[in-house]
Amino acid sequence: MDIEQKQAEIIDLFVKRASVSKGDTLASILREATSHPSLFAFSEILLLPYVAELLCMQLKGTTNSVYLDLDVLRLFAHGTWSDYKCNTGCIPQLVPDQLLKLKQLTVLTLAEINKVLPYDLLMPELDIKNVRELEDFLINECMYLFLSKAFLD
């Protein structure tokens, strides 16, 4: 099974579960989805009617306990590590699996924008202090997972 097919199956699973859930159950599914080690696409979940309705209610100032999890879901769908760091007071603290995934998604986002990703761009974007740590992250957490095909130079 190739990575795209596996990704589609995982997305389908979470979409099905989220589409029949509300309240705390939905919040739990959103936390599970953003922590899942093989799920890297979240737009389908954001497009579900109930989730979209909650997002509209949130914009109107209605309160609901699931909103913080919606903020995390939006971050994973459209944000980066830098976005998280700039909004730590507004977004719940992420668990280690979520932190890793957000950094992986940041690499993917940057790779979509730039064909070449210089280390001096990646290190501050990922909050990594040295080249060795960056190379270990790129090799072990991105390339081995087939998230990106790259050459290190």
What is Rg?
Answer: 16 Å
Mean pLDDT: 85
Shape summary: globular
The tally of strands reads 0
Count of runs of 4 or more consecutive helical residues: 9
Count of domains: 2
Poorly predicted segments: none
What's the story with the biggest beta sheet? none
Instruction: Please identify the oligomeric state.
Output: single chain
Helix content range of the residues, please? Answer: 55-70%
Cα distance, first to last residue?
Answer: 31 Å
- Please provide the ordered H/E string of secondary-structure elements: HHHHHHHHH
Strand residues, percent: under 5%
The class by helix and strand makeup works out as mainly alpha
InterPro entries: COPS7/eIF3m (IPR045237), PCI_dom (IPR000717)
Family: Belongs to the CSN7/EIF3M family. CSN7 subfamily.
Protein name: PCI domain-containing protein
Keywords: Signalosome
